[in-house]
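Batch 3, record 17
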Amino acid sequence: MSAATPELTQDDLFDADFLDRLRALFLRLRKRKQLRRKGLQNTPATGFTRDFKDFRHYTPRDDYRSIDWRLYARLDRLFIRLYEEIQEFHVHVVVDTSASMASPFPEKRSTALKVAVALSYMGLVGSHRVSLYSMGETMSEPTAPLKGQGSLQRVLDFATNLDFGGLTQLDASFSNFQPSRRRYGIIFVVSDLYGNDLAEAEKAVRHATSWPGEVHFIQIYHPWEAKPDLDGEIELVDVETAERRRLWFTPRDRKRYEARYERFVSEIEAACLARQIDYQRWRTDYPFDELFLDLLSRGSALAGGS
Amino acid sequence: MQFLYPNLLWLLLLGLIPVVLYLFRRRSKQVEVSTLVFFKSLAQEHQESAWLRRLKKILSFLLTLIVIGLVILSLARLVEIRSGDDQLRSVVILLDRSASMAMTDQEGESRLDVAKQRIREQLVTLPEGIELELLVYDRRPELLQPRTTKRRKILSQLDSVAVRPITGRPDRALNMAKTLAELALPAAIWHFSDEVESAEADLVDGIALQHFATSIEEATNVGITAFDLRPIPLEYGRYEVYVEAALNNAATEPVTTKLLVSIAGNRSHYQEIDLNPGQRSAVTFEVSGSIDQVMEIELQSQADRFGWDDRVTVPLPEPRSVVVAWIREDDGEDPFTRLALTSIQETGRLELLRGAPEAWPLSESVDAVIFDGWLPEEWPGDLPAIVLNPPGSVGPIIAQQLSDAVPHDSIRAIEPDHPVLFRVNTSRLALTQTAILDPRGSLDPLWMVGNEPVLAAGEVDGQRLVVMGFSAGRSDRLPLTASYPLLIGNAVLWAVEEVAAGRKAALLRTGEILKIESDTIRWRQWDGREVREQVVPVPSSRVELDRVGIWETEQGRFGGAHLLSVAESDIPVLPSGSDVASVETRSNWQRFVGHLIWWLLGVGVILLLLESWLFHRHAVY
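Prediction for the assembled complex:
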């Protein structure tokens, strides 16, 4: 079933104001990172960046191209130059494109896309490779790895062209998800995690343990879904399956529903924690900045944490 | 099937409301949700397919219509009539208010109360517009409420009906009810009585007779069913009492009842009577008393809940002497006859006037006359008479005097049990016949000598006559025996018996009409439990004796009124296993079997419960 939701333009997802806010967030994250590193030892790892780090004696099997010939000329001893290590991650952003993400609450779709774009932007700004996926009944093929801020337009094109509809097959999609192992990966799954049954999400989380890199589950939800404002005789229509169900909803039922929903969320969170997977609930009506900052400041490598 | 209130059937239009609601029902609010898994988890057990839900919805709608229909049918009072297509036009309610309807059950409820309640229940089963009549009866039927269609009038009159200590005559009442019913055919007669079966009645086609027995299942009753009191001949101030006690047929075991007799409050007689169910036992005894004294007879028995027949109260009658005139020739006075009459006179019961034929007709009032050897030319037809040695024929006396008396050695008694021959021994008598009698008509020969009657007695046109065709003085073995005075005495007493009976206390049965010349009548009545005195105004010269006890007019006339009814004392019971309000119907026409209101309401409630259980027992369906 394809959800009849209004089309999103690129400006809806990524306008100048949003870019400013992302930059500001990025700077805030840098500042946080620097503040956190004050008093700590630098990492001994060296890399191939242009940032000089140190000298050391040349030993066989070292790359002779690193020998500092000027210093040899002065001291007649072989030294090699060490540079700062540069880590390049592969950021995988998986967006749930099932019908439940677009209907009946389109806020979920726009939020999910904004999160995906923001994460991609962060990845691109950080000179990481970024791959985008859509997840519905199956996991789609990823986009070609994007790199550099110039790829932001492609990210936006991908986001705006996503077709929301169909069922959510969490278990099948996650079992088919095989991210590249060539680089350390940072995997973001943006979804409402509503499966065919209540246990499917928890079962799907288990697949994430085999993914290379750190995994973040971002559960997008609308406040109505946690506390539905229903009363009396209603006919419920599942936007994914079109299944209808009639019931007489009472305040007692509402309490039972809320308790059941909370338990569902808690079970997923507990399953993630048990597997060292980051989990964040993302309520659509909460400030984006706060939640995004909170997401990146939880130790994500994307934000420079380790 | 028939509706008692067909005008309420328009309420069936109310069924259009659920139809409209069903056709134009508001669709339930549709809400799109991201997933149903949370809602399913609320009531997983109620997941049903769409077709089942649709079926349930249709069933619920149909059940609603059925419930509405059943309720309205019950309001319209659907009743079932077994057969016949005719419509009932009138109902005659025949209610027994005779004495036995006062019989109470263990809850203290009388049979009349039960009958009233049953009538009220029956009335609600009747359709509107049927004409009703209320006819109550005891000894006589009384139309309490003429034909009306207003039930409240019937109910109002019904409240005023009370039991009266009078014997019931259902046959008369039933005939009257039948007559009333025939005026508006087709009709039904509802007979409410404590009798198990209704009296026979020839019903015309179009009349249904329904009998509602209100008798109880077990009853024991001992009652006085007959009573008499008369002065004992030749004994002043002595009375002979005859009491008959009976135990009802439906009694389950024999009963020993105590008969207590008191005069002026003093116990004068006590006797125990053993009675088997259905048995009647008579006892006679003598009591002494005087005028102005009251004799009370009471039966005391255990388990007897019907009191009206347990007591008889009667004032003792005046003991006046019998006055007899003896007409004979002065020179022909028979000394033996004089001796016999004198011996009776000495007891104080007989006042004898002696006179010659010249004294006839008598200037004084007498109770009887003795013609001895003489007969008047014009026969007195209004006086009891004893004729000795008739000289010829006058009036009913046909005789011829013999010129020569004929002696006879033996007498043949034709009717030795005749009261005139009470204790008269004829075996050793010899008499001399002086006249030939011709006992025609109602005179019966009592003594025969050869082929000739010499003693005859009988009643001619209400006049008692005793004729003797012999002479005591000339007979050999008659005058000196005790038989002659006995014969004379018996003849006198038998002849004046009717006159003496007139002097007995006025013993009447309840329900009889008494003609009085008084504005009030004083009652000393027995209500079954206690004796009360009451003065009742008399609107006319005739009053119905509707109480048990002693009545007395302003002029001092008094008497007793008692139930004395075998039928009322024989309290019936229902056969075991029968319903108290069992119905017996005799007609080939139609009859109500019962109204279906409770069935309809019961089915409606069951359907409501079924619908509730099927469709509303859980929130999710």
